[in-house]
Amino acid sequence: MGEYAVKVVRWDEQARRFAPEKMQKVGLFASERFFLDLYCLEPGQFQKTHAHAGSDKVYLVTEGRGRFQIGEESKTLVAGEAVMATPGEVHGIANDSGERLVVLTLMAPPPTSG
């Protein structure tokens, strides 16, 4: 094993980024095997439902409350709760609350471009 620098990231208030026009994704870690992002949603913002053929995705709510669609089911999650979409399962997020929503999002493997 070679020498490497340990990457330390913040996922607290200092790392969060919000914009009025759309949900923001803040990349924390990424490799060819996974990514870990913060998804930051203002009230009323959403991530369109979509699916990834060969990837699992985990949403872990760190702040706020939001509606998560996984397959045919839609559930409201609050801080401290998590849900997983398996490969090919339709999934998405909607911030239907009056407060900001922050979601720690892990996907493995990451989607391929092209």
CATH architecture label name: Sandwich
Biggest sheet, in brief? 5 strands, antiparallel
CATH topology description: Jelly Rolls
Give helix % range: under 10%
Rg, nearest Å: 14 Å
CATH H level, superfamily name: Jelly Rolls
Count the beta strands.
9
Give the class from helix and strand content and strand pairing. mainly beta
Strand content: over 45%
Average of pLDDT = 94
Order of helices and strands: EEEEEEEEE
Please state the overall shape, judged from the principal axes of the Cα atoms: globular
Low-confidence stretches: none
Biggest β-sheet: strands ordered side by side in the sheet: 1-2-9-4-7
Distance between the termini: 32 Å
- Please give the CATH class: Mainly Beta
Structure characteristics:
Jelly Rolls, 5-stranded antiparallel beta sheet, 4-stranded antiparallel beta sheet, 0% helix
Notes on the structure:
Strand 1 and strand 2 form a beta hairpin. It is built from no helices and 9 strands. The strands form 2 sheets. A 5-stranded antiparallel beta sheet has the order 1-2-9-4-7, with no helix packed on it. A 4-stranded antiparallel beta sheet has the order 3-8-5-6, with no helix packed on it. The termini are far apart. It is globular. It has a single domain, classed as Jelly Rolls (Sandwich). The protein has 114 residues and is an all-beta fold. The model has no long low-confidence stretch (mean pLDDT 94).
